[in-house]
Write a structure and sequence with these properties.
By secondary structure, the protein is of the alpha+beta class. It has two domains: about 35-135, no CATH class; about 145-230. Helix content is about 25%, strand content about 15%. It contains eight helices and eight strands. It has helices spanning about 5-25, 50-55, 60, 80-85, 105-110, 155-160, 190-195, 220, and strands spanning about 35-40, 45-50, 65-70, 75, 130, 135, 145-150, 150-155. The strands form four sheets. A two-stranded antiparallel ribbon has the order 1-2. A hairpin with a 4-residue loop joins strand 3 and strand 4. It is elongated and about 100 Å long. It starts with a helix and ends in a 12-residue tail after the last helix. About 5% of the residues are buried.
Length: about 230
């Protein structure tokens, strides 16, 4: 028979063991599931919306074949395991419409097929880390500097994509076709393409009528020290 003191000690010991077990378990399961994951596929890089798929299925529906029992990382399932009905086969380029896919448009996942996509799906303000490949998509720049004939020009990128202007990325970056190494992302437009109504009549520099620019004073882009290079007065 245990006396009262021994019973209390036994209860405290059980509670202590339980706490240690819970802390030990939670310490190895503190990482949050990724929101998006990047996979390398034959047709190009695929961005998998993990957060969305969590609303459709349980974790163990996909993560049930664990290669590493310590980290509980599982074998990646192929998209067609859920998104394709019928004969299992490799999808070809002429299957662009994916008629048997269930509610998924190809560009929802494939971003490198040369089709227009929403740029900030990947290029968010803080940058988006794809841990599957160890790559990070660069965040949108706030300012960009260009070397112009009249001096250094500071382009307010943040303002031009804001609600005040509202121009979609594709207006300036219209020659982008899934450049994995980010080549070709440079803007193909000149300032005067938007800021001047008579772009074909404007010389490369020393224009005599800056007043026709729409709402932008010289100093908004050009350093004031550069003005004297063209304007003596």
């Amino acid at each position: 028979m245990f006396n009262k003191t021994e019973n209390i000690f036994a209860v405290i010991l059980v509670i202590a063991c339980a706490v240690v077990g819970i802390v030990g378990y939670s310490s190895s399961h503190t990482s949050s599931p990724p929101k998006k994951v990047w996979f390398d596929a034959k047709a190009g890089d695929v961005i998998f919306d993990h957060a969305y798929h969590q609303t459709l299925a349980e974790c163990y529906d996909c993560h049930h074949n664990f290669e590493d029992k310590d980290t509980k990382t599982g074998v990646e399932m192929k998209c067609r395991a859920c998104h394709y009905f019928g004969e299992a086969r490799e999808l070809k380029s002429d299957d662009a419409t994916h008629p048997h896919f269930i509610g998924a448009n190809c560009v929802n996942c494939h971003k490198t097929v040369g089709m227009e996509v929403v740029c900030d799906t990947c290029h968010v303000r803080q940058g988006l880390a794809f841990k599957a490949s160890g790559r990070i998509m660069p965040a949108l720049p706030e300012t960009v500097k260009f070397d112009a004939d009249a001096g250094l020009v500071k382009f307010d990128h943040k303002f031009h994509i804001s609600r005040d202007v509202g121009e979609p990325c594709i207006v300036c970056h219209h020659e982008c076709k899934g450049n994995k190494d980010m080549k070709g992302m440079e803007c193909r437009k000149k300032c005067r393409d938007c800021h001047y109504k008579l772009e074909d009549k404007i010389p490369e520099c020393q224009d005599e009528n800056h007043g026709r620019y729409i709402g932008a004073g010289c100093a908004h882009c050009h350093d004031t020290d550069d003005c004297s290079q063209c304007h003596e007065d």
